[in-house]
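dumping these here so i dont lose them again. two proteins, back to back, each one seq then structure tokens. dont judge the mess
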Amino acid sequence: MPYPDNFQFSTFNFQLMKNPFIGTGVALVTPFRKPASIDFSKLEALINNIIANGVDYIVALGTTSEAATMTDTERHALQDFIIETVAARCPIMLGLGGNNTLAVTDAIANTNFDGISGILSVAPYYNKPNQRGLAQHFKQIAESSPVPVVIYNVPGRTGVNIAADTTLQLAEECPNIIGIKEASGNIAQVMQILRNKPEKFLVISGDDSLTYPMITLGAAGVISVIANALPKEMSSMVKYALKGDLKKALPLHYRMLPLMNAIFEEGNPSGIKALMEIQGQITNNLRMPLVKVSKPLYNKLSQYYDEFNA
């Protein structure tokens, strides 16, 4: 046990609980019948299952959704379907970002935000702006958005890291930027943000396996991939951790940890889709250039899932 029985957990201010993006968000996968066809019936069942099992909000059209390989028509249809299926049962955060600032602000101007509570906007990728460029990019997005913005730092995908000082600058200067999804894996950077951020600014874990330690440091929850498959367990772990009930949260964290790590061994969402097929939730179809996980990893996921249920 990492803390004594009389430990008073006080890193999280529960006056912030009115914020719709505290707790467990799910980075929603997109089930495909085949690479050219979205399986809306499976998606409806998935949405209903994760809401019934206690998740706090849904992230639509993020990286895990494979939105990068969809047409504009598909993305609009998917957004409309998710909003209709959720039916205001939980907030929805919409993935809306890119490496062309003008294109992103134009997309915001042409988006219907009815039913959308916020934007998740990834750091610009490929062209690798410096920190001043990153700050200006997100400032323009914040000024353009009619809903709150959460910036998304995932240097393993984008090739650029949003430095802690840049995050703190945006937190201080842009009231419409309400938080950051931190997936750098750099706990020192995360702690620098948590230590110096404005009170209401959210730091959200972008790594399932780091969610428990990040919450103990003061993070507000997670945007989770594993919650597609384990919504009850992930949302319960996060709720316990946010309340300071670490004796209940920690066993759940360790129970899920082998699956949390394994689903990312050959990329996301390849791993989570394999696990969800093992569960019988969806068919394991992806769009190129993504491919299915190897047979050894598929077998490992099946073994870990059996152990998880045992």
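---- next one ----
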Amino acid sequence: MSLFTLTPQGQLVYQDSFADTLASGLQNVETISVAHVGDELQILVSSQQDAGVTVLSVPVDDLGTVATGFGTVTGTASDDMLSGSILDTTLLGGHGDDILIAGAGATTMTGGAGADTFVMQAGSGLTTITDFQAGVDRLDMFDYLLLRSPQQLTVTSTAQGARVEYRNEVVEVHSAAGGPLTSSDIFGAGFGGSDHIPVDFGDFGGLTPDSSDGVAGQIAVNSETSNPGLTDAEISFTPDGGGTVSVTADDQGNFDLDLPDGTYSGSLDIVKHYSTASNEIDALDALQVLRIAVGLDPTWCPATAEDLIAADVNQDGIVNALDALAILKVVVGQPSAPNLEWVFLDENADLSGITKDNVTYETGADVVAVDGVIDMDMTSILLGNLEAA
């Protein structure tokens, strides 16, 4: 039996486990019931094999505050759950057995006294733990993609603790006792808690996951309404001086970045994959790219800057025959075909300097979020689809 707690963000955090013994009855568990009785959470378990009922209890008499914020978030003397946010945050746990959760921005965590759990988040800014107690506190890194063992981590001992790295994630761990820390000091014999479910990157049937049709040309981007051009797109906002928060829009293009109240300037980026099932890109698009590559106009008119952006399929800054070849690979469904995507530009971006030999542009846009609301216009271009550009 394993006990987890649920964070405000919907993440499960492992707390403890109880393994079957000769005195308990957990072989082939059949039913589980949970009841809040007084100051305890009581778990009653019956088995298909063993007679009787196993009763487990968890004290809940010292639960503290649950808080999310930025700046400084301070806990109580009880068992608190404190979370960082998109902006830089300092979490101060206090004296209980606290759970401190990294935010998207840089997060500094101080657990204080007690057995604390420091929960990392994938894609966070630099996370610093100021008072890790070896053998008492726990570092939870289960949110990191494909991480299964401490052996996958790069742990470098420092004068004040250790630097833990995994892919692009970095955690600075400072020892409460002072001096360097090793991997075994931090993780013991391995990660505590339940095993991860294996990840299956199987055949997606030739389609890019979360791919969908789109809307070419000018589109509205509003976090309070549906946005037809953003169906299944990944929306990312990075406030100036903060971390990045990302969400996936639904099939109507609705999205909620769950930003804090206030006014924050930053950058908005959108990633959206092309659906091969839509058949918006065909061999005629490859022909148009070839015409541009040899100095001719497309069949309908001189190429616009948007046409040239769409024609530079491999985004190397030059329109040439390689771009046409890439389109043909997509059309015939070759396994080596690139995964084409939509690009989103600021509607007011200066594209006057773009030529077939100089396709340079910045995706995304500078925006201002006001009380969590983002509202602006952008230009949507499907790479490889010249008729729609």
